[in-house]
Amino acid sequence: MEKSRSKFGSTLGAVMALAGSAVGLGNIWKFPYVVGENGGGAFILLYIGFIMLIGFPVMLAEFSIGRKSQMNVVGAFQHLAPNTKWYLMGAFSIITSVVILSFYSTIAGWTLEYVFLSLKGDFANITASEAKSIYENFISNPYKTIFWQFIFMGMTAVIIIKGVKKGIEKFSKIMMPILFLILVAMAINALTLPGAKEGLSYLFVPKFDQLNSNSILAALGQSFFSLSIGMGILLTYASYLSKEESLVGVSLKVIGADTAVAILSGIAIIPAVFTFGLEPQAGPGLVFITLPQVFQAMPGGTVWAVAFFILLAFAALTSTISLLEVPVSYFKEKLGISRKSMTWLASFVILISGAFSTLSFSVLSDVKLFGFTIFDILDYLGSNIFLPLGGIFICIFSGWYLKSTVIIREITGDSNPSVIFIRIYTIILRYIAPIAILLVMLRTLGLF
Ligand code: PHE
């Protein structure tokens, strides 16, 4: 089975696929707002610091587990930790990817409706209250929302069926540059708007007095979610990397692309929001209510709106394919069934769980647990509990169970890595990273 395992065809393709997973809704609708709220440039410095000190080493550890074992998310642990229960960590990653995909595909589906609405020119001359009612009417329409979620999962499945090289890699190589070009064009356009100065200072002027303990946790949490760390995606994709590939090189490129897209999104969005006298807000409200109003006020607004929602759909699609690949690669190898059958089967299961999430905005809006809808619960569980737990497990597995030299050899390709490097890396993996992630998790859960 191992011999016939697929591989990425080129470094560029692998980086595009990984960057595709990392770049997603988190970069576009969350980062710009969180930066503004937490001291602008001061937060960006903190965020980059965390990415380099914690995100980067944990990413490397997850990469090494996948590349060393050349196996799926369960097989990797069985291979590296035979006759132990560590393989349950792989099973946990599969559950996490299904949970995240269930709510992520709800929003991903919305992006397609918005591509369609902007193509029809529906946002021309809309007022704030019209933008709000278009959004509310749409998300509470069970048929339309389920329809788009089906279409989105269908698109995801079609790419996954084509395989690692002809599917994931090829489509990421098409979608990521388009996404990037649209974003750069939007950012340049935003810089010419009257609100550019105000927007840029909101984003970039460092206001260290606005940093507080919450900002520190927000920076770390955002860095993990944004890099897709801790759920087996990086591990699965790394198992398709060849042994010649430099893991450090690939990680730095992925981190660079993810951070660049987050910062460019801020430049593209915030000045425009200020120009038209609106308030930046986080989450769906920003992209689905505020931005349509911004676009309609711009010259060539329909074109910008179409381009932006295509960008958003691409950002989501390169993330949903990475999420679906985790269960597909495991079950097809485990059960020995074809990629195609396994993809349809997994998509079917996710459509069912995803439908509950989507319908929790309409017919199932009264189904609540502790005041949370099904969508909220899946989002909360996936993003605030499962993802950080996955990150902590990676640290414990690679820092405590495996000797860190095993990981370091895989990273450096050097059989005698320097002692200082081993010491520092071990301290990060054993203590700094897991404790930091644990603190973020407890804080988000309100337990500390
Ligand atoms: N990294 C993606 C983003 O920034 C989200 C994501 C998380 C995707 C986990 C896959 C897995 O939006």
Q: What is the helical fraction, as a range of percent?
A: over 70%
Query: SS-based structural class?
Result: mainly alpha
First-to-last CA distance: 47 Å
Order of helices and strands: HHHHHHHHHHHHHHHHHH
Bound molecules: phenylalanine
Estimate the mean pLDDT confidence.
94
Q: How is the main sheet built?
A: none
Strand-residue proportion: under 5%
Query: How many E strands?
Result: 0
The backbone outline, from C-alpha atoms, is globular
| Helix run count | 18
Helix-strand layout with pairing:
Layout: H1 11-22, H2 25-37, H3 41-69, H4 73-80, H5 87-119, H6 128-139, H7 142-161, H8 164-191, H9 196-204, H10 213-227, H11 233-238, H12 247-275, H13 284-296, H14 301-335, H15 339-359, H16 374-401, H17 404-412, H18 419-444
Helix pairs in contact: 1-8, 1-12, 1-14, 2-10, 2-12, 3-4, 3-10, 3-12, 3-16, 3-17, 3-18, 4-5, 5-7, 5-14, 5-15, 5-16, 6-13, 7-8, 7-14, 7-15, 8-12, 8-14, 9-12, 10-18, 13-14, 14-15, 16-18
Bound molecules: phenylalanine.
Phenylalanine binds at residues 21-22, 24-27, 100, 225-226, 228, 231, 233, 319, 322-323.
Question: What report would you give on this structure?
Answer:
The protein has 18 helices and no strands. It has helices at residues 11-22, 25-37, 41-69, 73-80, 87-119, 128-139, 142-161, 164-191, 196-204, 213-227, 233-238, 247-275, 284-296, 301-335, 339-359, 374-401, 404-412, 419-444. The mean pLDDT is 94. The chain is an all-alpha fold and 448 residues long.
Keywords summarizing the entry:
globular; 77% helix; mainly alpha; 448 residues; binds phenylalanine
